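Quick one, tokens below:
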């Protein structure tokens, strides 16, 4: 499976602009030690434990791209308070070529984004129900969570664009995660993806670049080296033994 030369080539931290390394988010080890990340494929995954900084950096990239921190594209005006705005002002993005088309998805604020679309659909000056044309023709609230995510991916995402997704698997069953991988494949090499995820299914996309934020600075690793793969494989192959050890009373050997 081929990969393209990316639009977004590099993310670097302007260390000279950081005023205090002891405040959030600069006190996160992966952020504190960040120099630059080079993206060498059109599908890049950020992995790491909760609080490791992967979503923090993804949101900062979205801010630099002009996307709302609540999610959406450059033309969407939904706003939420963001603790990551400081980081957005201290990173530099390197492009070749620079593009403006794309989308930022935050699973935790997706409900608010769907409500924002409904508000626009009720306003004739905002296009009325034509707003839904890019989302499958009807409100995202009229679908299950997983169906709404897939409707967004299928109808809103195009071939030429940068798509920043924060834990898209939150609403996707394993079968729908596979359907999402097929979508990435079908959109082709002119769509670029940077995805923060815990999903061993998504991480298995062929040719993807995986960057771990459990390292400081963040470091690339192979799929088989990720805890997501290793723990899942160990559980599936040795489920009864693993659960027996997990539930063993403290002090027993």
């Amino acid at each position: 499976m081929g990969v393209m030369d990316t639009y977004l080539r590099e993310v670097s931290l302007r260390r000279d602009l950081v005023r205090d390394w002891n405040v959030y988010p600069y006190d996160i080890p992966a952020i504190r030690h960040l120099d630059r990340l080079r993206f060498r494929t059109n599908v890049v995954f950020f992995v790491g434990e909760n609080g490791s900084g992967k979503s923090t950096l993804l949101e900062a990239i979205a801010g630099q791209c002009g996307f709302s921190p609540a999610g959406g594209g450059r033309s969407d005006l939904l706003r939420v308070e963001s603790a990551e705005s400081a980081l957005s002002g201290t990173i530099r993005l390197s492009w070749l070529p620079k593009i403006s088309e794309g989308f930022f998805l935050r699973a935790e604020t997706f409900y608010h984004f769907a409500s924002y679309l409904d508000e626009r659909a009720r306003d004739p000056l905002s296009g009325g129900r034509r707003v839904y044309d890019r989302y499958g023709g009807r409100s995202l609230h009229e679908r299950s969570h997983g169906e709404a995510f897939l409707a967004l991916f299928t109808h809103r995402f195009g071939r030429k664009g940068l798509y920043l997704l924060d834990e898209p698997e939150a609403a996707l069953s394993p079968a729908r995660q596979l359907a999402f991988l097929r979508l990435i494949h079908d959109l082709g090499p002119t769509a670029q993806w940077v995805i923060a995820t815990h999903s061993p299914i998504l991480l298995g996309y062929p040719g993807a670049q995986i960057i771990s934020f459990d390292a400081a600075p963040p470091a690339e690793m192979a799929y088989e080296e990720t805890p997501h793969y290793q723990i899942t494989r160990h559980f599936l192959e040795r489920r009864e033994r693993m659960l027996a050890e997990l539930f063993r009373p403290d002090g027993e050997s």
